[in-house]
Amino acid sequence: MNSDDIRKLDLVAMDFDELWLLHEQLTQILSEKISAEKLELEKRLAQLNRAKPIAEVKGSSSEKHFDRPPRRKYPKVLPKYCNPSVPEETWSGRGKQPRWLVAALQSGRRLEEFRISEPERPPSDEAGRRQS
After folding, report:
1. How many whole angstroms separate alpha carbon 7 and alpha carbon 11?
2. Of 76, 84, 89, 88, the residue nearest 114 (C-alpha)
């Protein structure tokens, strides 16, 4: 069947057996075309994977961040506030306040009540140099 024959078909006038035969033929043709397309795409993908440098493959998986400089590393920030009920819950004082702190502040407590006392630091070398 060529494209002219398909255009001339009057699908409404066809009986069930003719429609079913047409359906099977279309299914077969579509299956073959899909398989051929899949094979072609797999070949292209294999070529692209072989063409990539190894360093690029091992690098970042998201290619949209290549234009940006690498992110700066920040030092670890020690906690400044502690939940007295659960001492493992701490907050550095940066970012959003934790729920336990928000609830305590809303109940009338003050932020300074949760502050962790800083250990006394030994005198630094700079202080000794200034004195001499």
Report:
1. 10
2. 84
- Reported as a single tens digit per residue, the pLDDT across 114-126 is 999 876 555 555 5
Q: In what helix (H) or strand (E) does residue 25 lie, and over which residues does it extend?
A: helix 16-51
Contacts of 11 (CB under 8 A, 6+ apart): 19
In a domain, 127, yes or no: no
Token pair recorded at residue 43: 């070949």
Phi, psi for residue 43 in degrees, rounded to 5: -65, -45
| Number of structural domains the chain divides into | 2
CATH code assigned at 109: 4.10.430
* CA–CA dist 86, 100 (Å, integer): 10
Among candidate residues 105, 109, 77, 107, the one with its CA nearest the CA of residue 93:
77
The pLDDT tens digits for 14-48 are 899 999 999 999 999 999 999 999 999 999 999 88
By residue range, what is the domain housing residue 46?
Answer: 3-58
Any idea which of 38-42, 68-72, 127-131 has the lowest mean pLDDT?
127-131
What does the pLDDT average to over 64-79?
81
